[in-house]
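Posting for a labmate who doesn't have an account.
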Amino acid sequence: MEKTDNNFDVQTELKKLPNKPGVYIMRDADDTIMYVGKAVNLHNRVRSYFRKIVGRGPQIDRMVKQIARFEYIVTDSELEALVLENNLIKENSPRYNTMLKDDKTYPYIKVTVYEDYPRILFSRLMKKDKSKYFGPFTSAAAVKDTIDLINKIYGLRTCNRSLPKDIGLERPCLNYHMQRCCGPCTGHIPKEEYRKRIDKALEFLNGNYGIIIDELTTKMNECSEELDFEAAAKYRDLLSSVKMVAQKQKMTDAAMEDKDIVAIANDDQDAVVQVFFVRDGRLIGREHFYMTHISGNPQSEILMNFVKQFYAGTPFIPRELMLPIEIEDMDIIEKWLSSRKGSRVYLTVPKLGQKEKLMELAAENASLILSKDKERLKREEGRTIGAVKEIGEILGIKGIKRMEAYDISNISGFANVGSMVVYENGKPKKSDYRKFRIKSVEGPDDYACMREVLTRRLMHGLEERHDLEVRDIDAQYGSFTKFPDLILMDGGRGQVNICLQVLEELGVNIPVCGMVKDDNHRTRGLYYNNVEMPIDKYSEGFKLITRIQDEAHRFAIEYHRSLRGKAQVRSVLDDIPGIGPARKKALMKHFKTIVEIKDADIDTLMEVQGIRQKEAEDIYRFFHESNETEN
């Protein structure tokens, strides 16, 4: 990353700012982007940060003190500036921008109406592919249950066969034999008849449950009168499922419109935004979202940031967004959302009647979530950050954030492997976990294996750092470049000393602590600076040490087990010269078992696709000469 220009003069650059709309970017001394904002007038907006203004909030004051330079991008309109601002915030996650913490994608029901024999599918994306979409929904499980129910009622296909091209080419699947699918792949059901089933399914998805309820009730009664109680029970169960789905769709608006009802609850540190999703006048679900970096920001600004970030990422935008209070740039956000949707979108602030009641309900839910999560977050902080602080106090080490733990796994020296697990702020960071297959050690020598693992890990990090320094790139964020504040070894004095020797040889200074176990293989204390330190077994620090030790052990064993599995997945065919994966696959597809291959003569072997006379003779000779030798 390019470092800050030392010749950058803020006051001089302020005078150069144009009186045009655009986006401005604030950077610190390390050239890291701290804040991204948009402006109707860049000249006025950016200059305002450098005036002595009281009451703009401690967070903004802290940011201004760290600004080393700024840059800006001019746009043709305020709408373009808003879109660009959103893109830059999402790309860079600046630490002083209020951020939407949750990045969720919501499920849709997709009906492939463009196909000759349409299917009803689960989808996380809404594409312009001529399909008909219903949603979004907040519960993936409910979507899957609904799709399963519709397929059962109407006997729709769930396969990926290309119909009508593939009709009659393969046998029908198990669903057809279980009478769950009408079997369009057999050619027995005309396209028009299948389309009628799809039309009924679309009515169901549009909320017209009355027709299917009457139809199922009639069929259930007919089967009961004919004493076909098994079929009657089937229709009874389907009827019960349909009624359950219908009851979940609570009417909230006689206008049958799509709208999102957005409410907020916040304190000095945290904010929760609650959204009620109303589709076709039915409340289909709700979801809550956390906002970070809100310190000192008013509710209107938090809401504005939520609306911009959330609706920039969701594929479905409703006709109306109901907000509890007015937010800045409502007009321009309306225009932006309307352009994304392709039709008019309204941002409203309800004052009276049913709309106000729904807003109050959403706000109450947001407050409850914020209150409950305060307690949960406190407990979570005790288990994580609090536990790390406790470990640091025991060892006399300040500022521990990242911890790495190592373990070795083998069985009598077979497939020696090592594991590295990483915890940051007391939580596992699985993206930084690493596996090591030992290359230099034969046999069960855990100390030698550990030496190789540590040497490879640290050397890799040092090489990455050097490479990034040569290229003048910030070396803090590489895969191995980030060294731990504390190394935890799965063992006592011996393992710790191995690690200290490697660190000394490489000229790296990192504290090393051993996780000592008792005779029952349970953690009993820490070994640090040649002293075994007891630790309260009921403390959060002890529980965290135990979790880390168990995780390192699990990760190593899991890797070792996968290697053992790969080593055992072999076939006798692998030992036949000239028989590669393709021919081996062809042989097994044709004969099914090794015994059948062994009993086949040369002419029969040549019937297999890809097996010529030479290969057939080699296979025959391999099995029969082997038998003669054994005899």
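Reply:
Got it, the structure tokens are right above this. The radius of gyration is 33 Å.
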